[in-house]
Amino acid sequence: MTIPWRGVFPAMTTQFRRDESLDLEATCRHIETMIASGAEGIVMLGSLGENAALAPDEKRKVVAAALETAARRVPVIATVVETGTAAAKAYARDMERLGADGLMLLPAMIYRADPRETLLHYRDVAHATQLPIICYNNPLAYHVDITPAMFAELAAVPNLVAIKESSGDVRRITDLRNAVGDRYVLFAGVDDLILESAVLGVDGWIAGIGLAFPDENQRLWDLAAAGEFDAARRLYRWFTPLAHLDTHVKFVQYIKLAIQAAGLGTEWVRAPRRPLVGEERRRILAIIEAGLERRPALPPPPRGAANQGRRRRSRRGKAARR
C-alpha cells in the first residue's frame, strides 16, 4: 500500500471547557488554523489529544467533527489507544466506518508486552481494517519498544505504512533506513529533534508545540526538508526552548498553556491532569512568553515551496466536491 503522506501532521489537542466538557467548536477552529498554516494532515486523539481521558462516544464525536472540518482537504488520522487488542480492533473498524483516512496505532496500554506480543498486536489490528496505519513507537512513554528488526518483520503487513519514531534516539532513523529502506513513511515525533531528524531523512513531522506557533513550525519543516539548513538552524535556535516543552511528562499542560498564550485555544485539561499552578506555571509561562516576544521574522520559504501544500489541498477539495 502506497500513501502520499508527507510533511507536517500536527498532533491536535482536544479542547475542553473549564468544566472539562468537550469543546468541539474550539477543537475545529484550531484544526482550521493548522490547515491554513500548511499542514498536510492532522492526527486526532493521540497522547496530546488526551485519548485515554475520553469516553468511547466522545472519541467518536471528536473524530467525526475533525472529518467534517477537514472536508477531505487533508487526511484525518485517528489514534488507537486501548488496553486490549480486541478493543483496538473494534475501534479501528469504527474509525473506518466513520470515514477516517488512516489510523495511528499504539501498543496496548497498561500491560508491557514483550516483542512477540507486540508484533501480534500490530498484526491483529492491521488485519481488522483496510485503513493505512502509522505505527507509534514511544518506548519512553509506553515502555514497549518496536525495534528496527521488529519493523522488518512487520513489513509483510501491507497497511502498516508509516512509523512515528519517538524513541528519543535520533540514531534510530538511520537504523530504520538500513533495516527497512523506504518501506515505511517515516515521521519524526520529538519536537526538539526535528532538525536532526530532517537531516537524516525523515518524510514528515507529527508536531506538538507547533500547535501554538503554526507558521514558524511549518516554515522550519519546509526549510529543513528543502535542505536550507542555515536558515533552518537560525529558526530552530529560537524554537528549541519551546520544543523542549514537548518532552516532559506534563507536555499536554505545557503545550495547551502555549496554545492559550498564543490565542489559539485554552489550557483546560481533563482529570487526572490539572492546569499548571504556582512556580511551575510561572516558569513554563516565562518560556512561552519569551518565545512570543522574540518571535522572529519568518525567513523566505524554500524556492518552489510557497503555497505548494495549499495547491495540493485545493486540488483535493475540488476532487472531493466533484
Low-confidence segments, given as residue ranges, are 314-322
Question: Could you state the CATH homologous superfamily?
Answer: Aldolase class I
Q: What is the CA-CA span between the terminal residues?
A: 25 Å
Largest sheet: 8 strands, parallel
Number of helices: 13
Quickly give the structural class: alpha/beta
Radius of gyration using CA atoms only: 18 Å
Number of β-strand runs: 8
CATH third-tier fold name:
TIM Barrel
* Share of residues in strands: 5-15%
User: Helical residue percent?
Assistant: 40-55%
Return the CATH class.
Alpha Beta
What is the approximate shape? Answer: globular
Q: Please, what is the average pLDDT?
A: 94
Task: Sketch the topology as an H/E string, one letter per element.
Answer: EHEHEHEHEHHEHEHEHHHHH
Number of domains: 1
CATH architecture designation: Alpha-Beta Barrel
Strands of the widest sheet, in order across it, are 1-8-7-6-5-4-3-2
